[in-house]
Specification:
The protein is an alpha/beta fold. The chain contains 14 helices and 14 strands. A hairpin with a 2-residue loop joins strand 1 and strand 2. Helix 2 packs parallel to helix 9 and helix 10 packs parallel to helix 14. Bound molecules: pyridoxal-5'-phosphate. Pyridoxal-5'-phosphate binds next to helix 3 and helix 4.
Amino acid sequence: MKEQSNGLKFSTLAIHAGQPPAKPYNAVMTPVYQTSTYVQASPGTFVEGYDYGRTANPTRTALEENLAALEGAKFGLCFASGCAAMSAVLHSLNAGDHVVLCDDVYGGTFRLIDKVFLRMGITHTTVDMCDLAAVEKTFNKQTKLVWIETPTNPMLKVIDIGRIAAMARAHNCRVLVDNTFASPYLQTPLTLGADIVCHSVTKYIGGHSDVIGGALMLNDSEWAERLYFLQNAVGAVPAPWDCFLTLRSTKTLQVRMERHCDNARKVVDFLKSSSKVEKIYYPGLASHPNHDIARAQMRDFGGMLSARIKGGLSAAKSFLERLKIFSLAESLGGVESLAEHPAIMTHASIPAEARKKLGIDDGLIRLSVGIEDAEDLVADLAQALG
Ligand SMILES: *Cc1c(COP(=O)(O)O)cnc(C)c1O
């Protein structure tokens, strides 16, 4: 994976990008500019470039510059949630446009595209993006955007961003990558040919399960200008305090991700040895069908994995009920370990037939491996399986 183009390495950018000492007191931390408006010198003359808090806020600007640097992007835009960020991208399309999206995208992404934007004339086709020949068949003259999420949720498929981006370019389409599962530390899609990256900041970037947020990062100045217009016009902007908390989070993103990855590896090693586990879905396994793509486009394999417990629903349920350190909860990417049952919890809105086709059956559980002590995590899994 390529290093950041401006030379500075990830953790240095994470701690410093977008955050020069703040006027007037030279504060090391960017303050929370908890203000809705700014005094003008003369009608229409903005002293420091800010006029109204929906349009822009200095704490948000610092976060936008910080996140852009982490993705190696020229432009960054922050939103009140991942769904708000994704909506801005969809709002930049026109009625009649067509979107190709991968078949196990985040449930809220599919709901937004299928239940909100379809009614406004934006159509879509879902496809298994590990099957490049199938992807090729989904393009039509109206296709404007290819929507990739990798690794996917909860089956942890890994999609080849570079190959799909090349196909999209041949069809004059843009490519979005939802980089939430990997985080910018593990994967920078813009360097692989994607046009825009979106994040649910709520997950790894926030990392502490205390903020809902979203972000877009891109290099195309014309599209960025349109998205800044939409950010202000639609108004789903993040609060200054949430931007401050997120800036605090990005400083530790690399050390957290390294630990998430190490702990997940140890959890997988344990699960491999358990007679109660039928199958493990984790891109770091050499037997994973997309392992080579993951090695090529990711720095490491992440903190997410799924597994099928022997004994179906009742075995999966009692395993989840017995966990003590892993919390039974939706969401992912926080410092604390979470476990969940996709068929009943995160993926309940997907029709049973489609779930079955994807492999989301009643024995499947998903783990977001946190940064606690790995031995304690393994012991917890062992007692819950035992
Ligand atoms: C959570 C999530 C979203 C939605 O983000 P919110 O911050 O909850 O609005 C989008 N994509 C992925 C992959 C997610 O996990």
